[in-house]
Amino acid sequence: MTIKPGEPWGRTVERPVDLVVVVGDVALAVHLAALKDGSASAPVFAAGGDLARTLGDPSVEGRGTLNELPLDLVDVRLDDTTGTACAHVVIANPWWRGGKWRGSVIAVMNAEYIGAWDVAPRGHPNDGRVEVFEIDASFGLRQRWQALRRVRSATHVPHTGITTRSVRHATWNFDTPMSVQIDGRRCARALDISVTVVPDAAVIHA
User: Fold this and answer.
1) Cα–Cα distances in Å, from 56 out to 103, 113, 192?
2) Which of the residues 83, 101, 187, 200 has an alpha carbon 20 to 30 A from that of 95?
3) Contact indicator for 86, 74 with CB cutoff of 8 Å
4) Are 194 and 132 in contact (CB under 8 A)?
């Protein structure tokens, strides 16, 4: 069951003997996807990356017990291909069309952070939803720079040029292909993009 306000998240367990320590969001998503489809079985500890930072950057060293936490994953469809995100999905123009500095920019957040940016402080990686932030295409360079400065301290919203919403599923259709990054890794360009939250899709240790 996904977490509800005021409820404890997960449980304390003995450290598994076959625990795999995974560093970074991309490696974590790959391992969790393998657990999901049955091609892997070893439990995983999230170390490093934006999801781990959301969990408080826990250390595994010298610990006999760990927190076992249910986690939502995000199924991502890019035209005719699919992927899985554990932390975030970012949609923007490709670099030759201005990248994040021109046009719409969309951040789909399962984690709280993208690098140094505190994007979704009110989200939770096991609430059955993702937080979506959309920068309006009319945003100028100066407005974007100011917004990026404010995002480091999570003061970028509310803002008239940034739309926020909490969703279980979302779809976007573009006239020209957009660049998509899943968990910080550039994956593809696509016209039709959708995200769907899969509640309680994985279990991690932290």
Assistant:
1) 33, 11, 34
2) 83
3) yes
4) no
pTM for the model: 0.89
Cα–Cα distance, 83 to 5 (Å, whole number) = 29
pLDDT in tens, the chain (206 residues): 677 777 889 999 999 999 999 999 999 999 998 888 877 788 999 999 999 999 999 999 999 999 999 999 999 999 999 999 999 999 999 988 877 778 788 999 999 999 888 888 888 999 999 999 988 777 777 777 776 666 665 555 556 667 889 999 999 999 999 999 999 999 889 999 999 999 999 999 99
Question: CA-to-CA distance for 66 and 148, rounded, in angstroms?
Answer: 35
- 86, amino acid identity: C
CB 44 within 8 A of CB 15: no
Helix (H, G, I), strand (E, B) or coil at 79: coil
Residue 47: HSE in the Cβ half-sphere, 13 Å Cα cutoff: 11
Q: For the beta carbon of residue 200, count every other beta carbon within 10 angstroms.
A: 14
Residue 147 phi, psi (nearest 5):
-65, -40
**89: nearest Cα among 103, 75, 70, 104:** 75
Could you tell me the two tokens for 150? Answer: 């404010």
